[in-house]
């Protein structure tokens, strides 16, 4: 989303959520974005996002939900990155939805929703 050469459809989806006031951020997502940020333009855009978005706190309850989700995922035969599990658990805890194009998230969201 931060890269000018990134997918325009994803950038538009994110911008639509931002315009609608529907977006929030999770510390793990911030870390992933900062880890990949290149150049001053991307870093400035990321700082602007941080200033504009409410952040969902990673509480002990969120971590407990992440541990349970990891167990459920493993039992279902799903191997997902720990970062994705934490993000999905945080969203579930706060009742936030995730708009993702990542297959791990799609599988985790099915587990979380019970579908």
- Please, what is the average pLDDT? 89
Largest sheet: none
Helix content: 55-70%
Distance between the termini: 29 Å
Number of alpha- plus pi-helical segments? 6
Number of strands: 0
Number of spatially distinct domains: 2
What is the rounded Rg?
Answer: 15 Å
- Note the beta-strand portion: under 5%
SSE-based structural type: mainly alpha
H/E element order: HHHHHH
Unreliable sequence segments:
none
Indicate the overall shape: globular
Task: Write up this protein.
This protein is mainly alpha-helical and 115 residues long. The protein has two domains: 8-52, no CATH class; 60-113, no CATH class. The protein is 66% helix and 0% strand. It has six helices and no strands. It is globular. 16% of the residues are buried.
Index terms:
115 residues, mainly alpha
Short overview:
The protein is mainly α and 115 residues long.
Q: Can you lay out the helices and strands and say which pair or pack?
A:
Elements: H1 8-19, H2 27-36, H3 39-52, H4 60-75, H5 82-94, H6 103-113
